[in-house]
Amino acid sequence: MPSFSSVFIAAFIITFGLKLWLALRQMRHVWQNRGDVPAAFAGNISLDQHQKAADYTLAKGRLSLLNLTLEGGLLLLFTLGGGLQWLQDRAADQTASPIWQGTLLLLGLMFISSAAELPLALYRQFRIEARFGFNRQTLASFFVDMIKQGLLGLALGVPLILLTLWLMTRMGGNWWLWVWLMWMGFNLLVLAVYPTFIAPLFNTFTPLQDASLRARIERLLDRAGFRSSGVFVMDGSKRSSHGNAYFTGLGQSKRIVFFDTLLEQLDPDQTEAVLAHELGHYKHRHVLKRIVLMFGFSLLLLLVLAWLKNANWFYAGLHVTSPTDATALALFFLVLPVFLFPVTPLMSLYSRLHEFQADAFAAKQSRPEHLVSALVKMYRDNASTLTPDPIHSIFYDSHPRAAERIARLQALTIAEPQPIGA
Question: 309: which of 112, 328, 337, 391 fits an S-S bond (Cβ 3.0–4.6 Å)?
């Protein structure tokens, strides 16, 4: 029977080989189609704009190859290279408490990974995003954001790690159930407080001031039966010229958010259509379905972890000589992506189906051509490639390919907005 080291190495080669193949396919396909605007977009997107999107995609693709190399190198360093055991030994030098040792181990793991990825993040923001005219962030604000994210991560992460390790130590064989319940509560709490306490740490949110647009939006919300704490505009332009819209929060904290850059790009008809799409996710309960799916999947993963936690071959195969609850957690979440990547297309497909449903809802509540024109503007202004590689899209794209999405919308019957249920 092969050792777990052999199984892991085989899975690593397959997964990272597949990722490399997909990245190269994407770059080759985009380059081969760089010279011609797809027929469906020829009247709205110029050749220069199409080529800009292709070049932007290629630049991000080249960076993804570096990121893939770094990701693989760190994984091998922490596992077969003995890096995790080294971190465990260093943590043991600092404290005799197993729970605090585990906390230091996990924090050290996250710190090293973040520090290693920092040069790529800087290059992405200040070379690629700046080169294509999207970056509006200064170096100082980049590091301010990073410090805020780090402090927020410590404020939320340290208590979460401590409680998880305490439950693993004190709750016996059913620890996984208690951790799962705690994890569900933590996520629901974050979803509830994110709009009013977390998001404002990074951006300013102001109520929508355009009275005419606000009246249109309120009528749409009434038709959709959506109740929120308000419609807000976020100062996304202080970091990037990319535009977006979303709704967030739970219960009474639900709010609709438009990037200021998006409102600059779209006219009122298009803005209403984009919001109708977002409301389609709400009406079809996509957020709730994804939360339930996430909780169910996390329960399954914790059951697997509970089994692996007591398996000596698991630690030995990944070069950990002094197993602890923290090393079990660290190893599990380090190697998990290697074994799960081949099923990524299922999650991407599930997400794309939700996008099609939300588009169909928006076409009933506004007009299909309004959403089409809004999407085309967003593809153009965000330099989104119109010619992604089909197989790459199957794995990675949470949204349908541009041509397929536009074709479906154009095929819908153009009708006046209808009340829900009509």
Answer: 328
Tens-place pLDDT, residues 162-172: 999 999 999 98
Q: Across residues 178-198, what is the average pLDDT?
A: 91
How far apart CA 222 and CA 42 sit, in angstroms, is 37
**Local structure of 326: helix, strand or coil:** helix
What is the CA angle 200-203-204, rounded to 5?
80
Helical H segments across 124-138, by residue range: 129-131
Average pLDDT over residues 352-364: 93
Strands 205-207 and 231-234: antiparallel
Which pLDDT score, from 0 to 100, does residue 353 have? 95
**312: three-class secondary structure by DSSP:** helix
Q: At what angle do helices 211-224 and 268-283 cross, to 10 degrees?
A: 30
CA angle 148, 139, 48 (to 5 degrees): 120
| Residue 120 C-alpha from the chain's centroid | 18
Which residues, 6+ apart, have CB-to-CB distance to 420 below 8 Å?
Answer: 223, 224, 225, 283, 365
Beta bridge partners of 259: 234
Q: In angstroms, rounded to a whole number, what is the distance separating the alpha carbons of residues 22 and 242?
A: 25
| CB 339 within 8 Å of CB 11 | yes
Q: Which residue has the higher pLDDT, 22 or 245?
A: 22
From the list 81, 156, 143, the residue with the least C-alpha distance to 114 is: 143
> What are the two backbone dihedrals, phi and then psi, of residue 351, each rounded to the nearest 5 degrees?
-65, -40
Go through the domains of the chain in sequence order and give each one's CATH number.
205-284+347-411 (3.30.2010.10)
Q: What angle do CA 169, 175, 176 make, to 5 degrees?
A: 135
> What span, in angstroms and rounded, lies between the C-alpha atoms of 147 and 150?
5
Report the pLDDT averaged over residues 231-244: 86
Cα-based angle 327, 333, 335 (whole degrees, multiple of 5): 95
pLDDT tens digits for range 126-150: 999 999 999 999 999 999 999 999 9
Q: How far separated are the first and last CA of the chain, in Å rounded?
A: 62
> Whole-number mean pLDDT of the chain?
90
CB distance 188 to 203 below 8 Å? no
Spatial separation of the C-alpha atoms in residues 353 and 40, rounded to whole Å: 22
